[in-house]
Specification:
Length: 352
C-alpha cells in the first residue's frame, strides 16, 4: 500500500477547475494498492466530508487560489512532513519555493505537475511572474518527477532546464459517461464556448466575431469574476445571437448543451492541455481552436484553427459543413486514444 498525499488543489468533490477534476478521477479510478489523502481548502467546503472516493480528506483554513495559495501550499507541505506519506503529489508550483526545505525533513517521493507555465499568464504583474518563475525552477530542481500535461510544456522544460518530464494529459470521458441516457438529443445550430473569462482565453476576440455574424453563440463563463468580464457582459449581453451563461458544474446540464451544439469554440492561448477542450473532444463536435502549440498538440493538429476575429468570422460563416463533420469525427478518435481517465490514472500510479 502506497500512501499518496495530494497538495495544491481546492479539494474534492471537484468544484473548481482542472486539477480538482484530475484528483476526483485519480481517486475514483485508483487501484487497491494506492491510498490517497487530499488536502482541501476549508473555505470552499461548508460541508467537510471525512472521506470521498475512498480518499481521506483533510482541511486547511486558507484559500487555495490567488496570492494566499502560496501559504496554502506551504502549510500543506509542512503537514506532509508530519504525516509521512510515501508520495506527495504537488499540483501547481505556487508553494514549490518551499520544496528545498521540505526535502530536508521528508523522504517522500515528490511528483510535481507544473501546470501550464503559470508565470506566463497575462493576468499576473511583473512581481508575481518573477515569483512564479522562481517557484517553477524550484519545482523542477527539487521534485523527483516533473509531470507536464502537454508536449509543448515538456519541450519547454527540456529546453529551459535540461530535464525530461513525464507527459500525462487529462481525461475527458467523464463528461459523456454521466449523460448516456440523453443520447437522443438533437443537434441545434449554435456554437458553444466554455472557459474562465480572462484575456488570455481570447474571449473578446470570440465575442467580437460572433457579434458580426448571424450565427448563435452560447458562451459559459464566470461573467462576474472581474472588471474585464463584467465589461464584456455589459457590451455583448444585448446581442440577439449571443447568450452569456453563468458557470455550470452539473454534468447533466453541461452534457445537454455540449451534445446539442453544432461546433465548439476554444480560445485558450496558454495553460497546456485544457480540460474543457479534451472533454468536448469526446462529443465528436468540430473544434475551432485558437492557433497555438498547446491546442495543436492537444487536438493532434486536426482541428480548425484561427488567429484573429476576422479569421474566426470567415470560418463560422462558411458553409463547408462536410469539412466540419470530418473534424468532429477526428476529434472523438483522438479523445478515445489519448484522453481517458483510466489510462491517465495508470500513468500516474506508475510514477508512485
Amino acid at each position: 500500500m502506497r500512501k499518496v498525499v495530494v497538495v495544491g488543489t481546492v479539494g474534492i468533490p471537484a468544484c473548481y477547475g482542472g486539477f480538482e477534476s484530475l484528483v476526483e478521477n485519480l481517486t475514483k479510478n485508483s487501484s487497491a494498492e494506492i491510498k490517497y489523502e487530499v488536502i482541501c481548502s476549508s473555505n470552499s467546503y461548508p460541508e467537510k466530508k471525512i472521506e470521498y472516493n475512498g480518499a481521506k480528506l483533510s482541511y486547511i483554513p486558507l484559500s487555495a487560489n490567488g496570492m494566499q495559495s502560496i501559504f496554502y501550499d506551504i502549510v500543506s507541505l509542512i503537514k506532509c512532513i508530519f504525516s509521512r506519506p510515501d508520495v506527495v503529489l504537488v499540483l501547481g508550483v505556487s508553494g514549490c519555493i518551499f520544496l528545498p526545505f521540505f526535502k530536508l525533513f521528508s523522504r517522500a517521493r515528490v511528483i510535481t505537475n507544473i501546470d501550464g507555465l503559470e508565470w506566463k499568464r497575462d493576468k499576473w504583474g511583473s512581481l508575481p511572474r518573477k515569483f512564479l518563475k522562481i517557484s517553477e525552477k524550484m519545482a523542477v530542481k527539487f521534485s523527483d518527477v516533473v509531470v507536464t500535461d502537454n508536449k509543448a510544456i515538456s519541450d519547454y522544460v527540456l529546453y529551459e532546464y535540461g530535464i525530461n518530464s513525464e507527459t500525462i494529459a487529462y481525461g475527458g470521458d467523464h463528461a459523456i459517461i454521466g449523460g448516456q441516457h440523453h443520447q437522443n438529443l438533437s443537434v441545434q445550430e449554435y456554437a458553444l464556448a466554455l472557459c474562465r473569462i480572462e484575456p488570455e482565453n481570447n474571449v473578446a476576440m470570440i465575442l467580437d466575431a460572433f457579434s458580426k455574424s448571424n450565427k448563435v453563440l452560447k458562451f459559459i463563463g464566470n461573467w462576474e469574476h472581474s472588471e474585464f468580464s463584467r465589461k464584456l457582459r455589459e457590451k455583448y449581453s444585448t446581442s440577439k445571437n449571443i447568450q452569456l451563461i453563468d458557470p455550470i458544474y452539473d454534468l447533466d446540464t453541461l452534457f445537454n448543451l455540449r451534445k446539442s451544439s453544432s461546433i465548439y469554440i476554444h480560445g485558450h492561448s496558454a495553460g497546456g492541455t485544457n480540460p474543457s477542450l479534451v472533454e468536448m473532444m469526446h462529443f465528436g463536435k468540430p473544434i475551432l481552436a485558437f492557433d497555438c502549440d498547446f491546442n495543436r498538440y492537444t487536438t493532434d493538429n486536426s482541428a480548425i484553427y484561427f488567429k484573429s476575429s476576422s479569421e474566426l468570422i470567415d470560418i463560422i460563416d462558411s458553409e463547408h459543413y462536410t469539412r466540419f463533420e470530418k473534424v468532429g469525427n477526428k476529434m472523438v478518435e483522438v479523445a478515445n486514444r489519448c484522453y481517458k481517465w483510466q489510462n491517465v490514472t495508470e500513468q500516474y500510479e506508475k510514477l508512485y
